[in-house]
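Appendix B, Record 12. Input sequence as logged:
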Amino acid sequence: MRFKVVGIGEILWDLLPDGRQMGGAPANFACHAAALGAEASLVSRVGCDEAGGELIRRLARFGVHTGGVEEDPAAPTGTVTVGIASDGQARFTIHEDVAWDRIVGETPGRLAMATANAVCFGTLAQRGRISHQSIPNLLKLVPAEALRIFDINLRQDFHTPDLIRESLGLANVLKVNEAELPRLVEMFGLQGDPPAQVAGLARRFGLRVVAYTRGEQGSLLYSEGRWSEHPGLPTNVVDTVGAGDSFTAAMALGLLAGWPLDLVHRRAAEVAAFVCSRPGATPELPEQLRAPFLTFRSPGPNPASRAEE
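Logged structural output:
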């Protein structure tokens, strides 16, 4: 059996300078997980329009199950205008009142959540009243032993302290980057240097794993008192769109496979570095990056803790 992995939240078109690309962190996560051998699903919502139909077809071509992608009769499929700055970092303008603001949790999506080994969610899809009500209820269907990954993904002003606090309470894994950690530090009054702040978040919210990514400065993984540090890989950065989502997908599958924390970390960093070297959020991953993930199929009883053995 393959690991069952679900992204829940936004799917949209990133309107990039050189054309449109499928985007949305949960959708990117699901596509990368599928490329790395998972049985991946997306729970989201698109409009009853050409743009939504094409997104569903794109997901299917990536090998992602689309039964959980609802169709909205009134709201349009989501779009985001993306500009790439001179440092390669993406700048986003996220358009409002779109289909993924209205995720309700139809039967296929509920079934995907109830059988998942890992689920990834964020703040952005919870900005709308309907999705904000539905997503926490869907997360409560996830098996207790599964990874519930909160990729905080702060965008524009589509988040509040209460939403972040609630989401951390639903998670057992956190992925946060160097721009987001200082905001959590201020919000929760965390003390010390970044490693101390990461450990403080883990203790306060009962998190099994915290991933702290720092761009070209590398990343830290913290899991139940143990640390892994990776310095980052030399990369000719084309853009960073989707790199964090690929890191999260690879990390999730490595944790599920029970790899040692340093190995989980190294392989996640390698996948993310490759994605940075290609345009768009979901470039085709080369076989040498995919191969290690394809040899591990069956989940154990407590995957996050097994990564520390």
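The CA atoms of residues 189 and 305 lie 28 Å apart.
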